[in-house]
Every structure is written in C-alpha cells, then in structure tokens.
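Quick illustration for those who missed Monday's session on complexes.
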Amino acid sequence: MSRNTPQDRPDPRPLSQLGLTARGGADPMISDLVVDSRRVGDGALFAALPGSQVHGANFIPAALQQGAAAILTDAAGAEIAARPLSESHAALIVVEDPRQVLAYTAALWFGAQPQTMVAVTGTNGKTSVATFVRQIWMALGHEAVNLGTTGVEGAWSYPLAHTTPEPITLHRALAAAAKAGVTHAAMEASSHGLDQRRLDGVQLAAAGFTNFTQDHLDYHHTFEEYFAAKAGLFRRVLPDEGVAVINMDDARGAEMRAIAAGRGQEVITVGRGLGDLSLVGQRYDGTGQDIRFSWHDRPFMARLNLIGGFQAENVLMACGLVIASGEEPERVFETLHELTTVRGRMQLAATRENGASVFVDYAHTPDAVATAIKALRPHVLGRLVAIVGAGGDRDAGKRPLMGQAAHDNADVVIVTDDNPRSEDPAAIRAAVKGGAPEAIEVGDRAEAILRGVAMLEPGDALLICGKGHETGQVVGSDVLPFDDVEQASMAVAVLDGKTV
Ligand SMILES: CC(=O)N[C@H]1[C@@H](OP(=O)(O)OP(=O)(O)OC[C@H]2O[C@@H](n3ccc(=O)[nH]c3=O)[C@H](O)[C@@H]2O)O[C@H](CO)[C@@H](O)[C@@H]1O[C@H](C)C(=O)N[C@@H](C)C(=O)N[C@H](CCC(=O)O)C(=O)O
Ligand SMILES: Nc1ncnc2c1ncn2[C@@H]1O[C@H](COP(=O)(O)OP(=O)(O)OP(=O)(O)O)[C@@H](O)[C@H]1O
Ligand SMILES: N[C@H](CCC[C@H](N)C(=O)O)C(=O)O
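Prediction with 2,6-diaminopimelic acid bound:
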C-alpha cells in the first residue's frame, strides 16, 4: 500500500491528440495540464476557467510568461486576454464550457481508469457509502479504492485536498490506481464537483443518491440549485447499461428516481421497509447491530460491527452499488460482517474506566447532527453528551439549526470551535447557541473535550461532532494540529490516570 500522492506526468504529445482544436489550426506539443497559473511550466496547457472570485483569464499573461504552449478558455476569457493572446504564439482553444472540456481532456491525457467505477452523491453519507463499497469489493477479492473526503483509501492510499478533486488531480489518481492494478473504484460526487463538472470524464457504471438536506447554500444559493447539482450525477453514468441506486426514504428520493429512470437507467431502490433492498429490522448493542433486510422480498440477516442505525442504510446503498457493478447479491451480503468503522464516522475513540464511551463523528450539517445523536442513543444505557461547533466561511444558516439539532436530541450540549477559518470564533459559537441556549460554551476544543469526558458517568456516552477524521483546526490561514480521536484518548488518560 502506498501513502504517496502520485506525481506521474504523461509524455508530451500534440494538442490534436487531446481532441482539442486551436484557432488557426496550431498544434503545439503539450507537456502538462494546469488550472493554476502559478503552476504553469514550459509547454503546459493552461485552462483559464471562469471562477467564483475571478476569471482565470486574468492570469493568462502570467501563464504565457511562464511558457504556456496553449490556453483553453471560454469566449469571455478570450476577450479578457485578447491583447496578450494576440501578441503570443500560444495556441488558443475557445469553448463554451472549459470546465467540461478540461474534464474530458484530463481523462484522455492520463488515459486510464479502474475498469469498474461507481459514484455516490447526497448531503450526508458519501464517504461512508464509498468506503463500504470498497470494503465489499475487497472482501470479494478485487483490488479496490475509494476516493473522497478521507483521501484515496484501500489497495492504494494517500490524502486528497477535496471530496471530488478537480479533473487533473482526479484523473492522475485514477490512472495511477489503474496502473497499480486497481480494478474497482468508488468515488464521492460533491455538489461543487458536479456543478464544476469535475467528474465529467469518468466512466461510471452506477451512481447512488443517499439523501438531501441543508448544506452549502453559501455556494449554491438555493435548495433547487443544490438539488440540480446533485441530480447531475445521473447524467454521468454510462448511457445504456448504467444503474441508479436511490434511497427512497429521503423526501427527494422519488424525484431522483424519476430523473434516473427518465434517462433510461435501471433503478435499484433502497429504503426502510420499502425498495428492492429493504431494511426491515435492526437490533442494537454496545459494539454494533444485527440487521434484517430483504432483496426483492427474499429475507437476509447480517451482523454489522458498526455503530449507528444510519450506517445500515449506507451499507444497503453500498450493497446496491456493488450489485449494480455486476456482483452476485448473495455473495455481497455474505461479506457484511467484515465491514469496519469508517474513519471518524461513529468511531469509538476511547472508553473510560467506568465504562462510559467517547465517539467521534463527522456530523457537520443540521440533519447529520440530529441523525448521529439519535443513532447513538440505542447503543447507550446512560446520558448522551454532545459536543458541537460549526465551521467558519461556510453556510452560516446551518449554525443555529446544528445547535438546535444537538439541543433537541442530546442530554447535555457543549458548543465549541470547529475550523473558524477567517471568522470570529465567538460569533460562530453564538450563532450555534442560538439554537441551543442552554448549552455550555467552551471555545477551546481540547478543553471542551476534556469537560465532556469528565462529565461521563457509568453507561454514559460522549459524541464529538464535526471533525471526524480531520487532523487540523483551521484558524485564520493556519492549520493547527488537532485530532478529536487523539484528544479523546488524552482526556481519558488524564482523567483516569492512564498512559496514552
Ligand atoms: C468554490 C470552489 O469550489 N472553487 C473551486 C474553483 O475555483 P474558483 O472558481 O473559486 O477560483 P477563483 O479563485 O475564482 O479563480 C478562478 C480560476 O483562476 C485560477 N487562478 C487563480 C489565482 C491565480 O493566481 N492563478 C490562477 O490561475 C484558479 O485556479 C481558478 O481556476 O475552481 C478551482 C479549480 O477547479 C478549484 O480548485 C476551487 O476549489 C476550491 C479550492 C475549494 O476549496 N473548493 C471547495 C469548496 C470544494 O470544492 N468542496 C467540495 C465539497 C465538499 C463537501 O461536500 O463538503 C469538494 O468536492 O471538496
Ligand atoms: N445516511 C445518512 N443519513 C444521515 N446522516 C448521515 C448518513 N450517513 C452519514 N451521516 C452523518 O453525516 C456525517 C458525515 O458522513 P459521511 O462522511 O459519510 O458523509 P459525506 O456525505 O461524505 O460528508 P462530506 O462530503 O461532507 O465528507 C456522519 O459522520 C454522520 O453524522
Ligand atoms: N466538506 C465540508 C466539511 C466541513 C467539516 C467541518 N469540520 C467544517 O469545517 O465545517 C466543508 O468543507 O464544508
């Protein structure tokens, strides 16, 4: 298993071999594809993309100075940089949607992807589903990876900066995996990634939809725009043989099913008590749950060593995607007892000497906070303490709703900081407390965790929400080392006099 980011750069080749036609027929050799002018080197194709802050065409002069051999942009970009372009020998490719063209070009440039690929979208559950899909494939004997918020994981493993990387990083990763013998890959499709067409060049055998609730309205502005971005995933599966796996428990599930069916895709439905894959019973204990489910009305049982009822929904979604990728359903169901906790998702981080437990979870939306706390309840005999905070420079409307979700579902709530970024942490905490007025406020996250752990009596549990697998606290532009799992073990060690 590698933990290194691949650095592969394909051999230079003429622009025309990338399926691109320049104005005037120029056909220079291309040495690299780049979206950031600061990374342009000799012979690179610079994609000058329309941005959310600025048009990338403003950086065309810098890219030309650094030796760009070709510029890919839209009409607005060509106009912005008309003068420097007219004075240069660089090839100019003007297209309507340069983000989409870049995605196809990156696919051709890197030239390989694992044979079988699936993707999953939804507000919550993408990392969990993609991880379970990969774990099932591996249990069935395939070389597999999942790509998303927790990086590239599985047969081949390293961190990624984004949930859905931009096409150059994405296709570099897919080609490196394919060359290393990875045959199966499950990826997360974020709404930003879909909107920016980052995965248009990927050949998808199947796509899944988990759920749709509030997040990212800072970027998408309205729920409808956000939904349309997510629905866009179903335009990207293979036209004739593609399969859609849809969670019918979600209020927008029926609409998503209609969109997928309307595009001629076979649909596998998943749901509690309804659907092709139907969850009909769950029995919880301290280490996981037993589930009863049916596949086309045939009943099955499985042991899941996973905390949280929602993880059973994610597991069934994963089963649907693996079945859609061509595996025998019975063989898929036989692997389920082997599934392991997804990093930072309902992860048991520490246990106190009195038996109380501390869990770390990535709940960072109102629905996820409510779901995670409710899901922990049946595994716990005593009180439930929740630590919650909201990130800076992100959808501000979700802050009080996250506080309220904690207030409505936990016995004790502690409000703390979670990546304040450029914002005033006290103002973010105040917004979260707007929904949880009785919450205890402790700005310093390490202290909040220590206070939460100190409260635990026999049978109690603490759920630390928001940062999951993250290993840093972003304050201003600094990333300070911070890991909830480590902090939880340290707090237990300090309070119970153990060594970590
Ligand atoms: C908001 C957002 O998604 N922005 C993405 C977008 O950049 P932008 O349109 O905002 O860029 P901009 O600052 O306006 O600049 C426009 C263009 O000029 C280029 N530029 C800029 C400066 C310079 O000196 N030279 C230069 O060439 C930029 O590379 C960009 O292509 O296009 C860029 C190139 O493809 C992306 O790298 C960038 O992702 C940024 C880094 C980002 O952080 N995105 C996050 C919000 C994101 O995508 N998150 C999702 C969702 C996670 C979730 O579900 O929770 C994810 O998939 O990770
Ligand atoms: N099916 C689900 N329904 C509701 N909440 C869920 C579901 N699955 C996961 N969650 C909650 O969302 C959190 C994030 O889960 P996960 O990382 O799998 O989702 P995600 O969609 O990948 O999120 P992100 O892209 O922001 O990383 C979990 O820690 C849990 O609190
Ligand atoms: N992909 C999400 C993760 C949020 C995680 C949380 N810890 C925060 O910083 O708000 C985002 O960037 O909005």
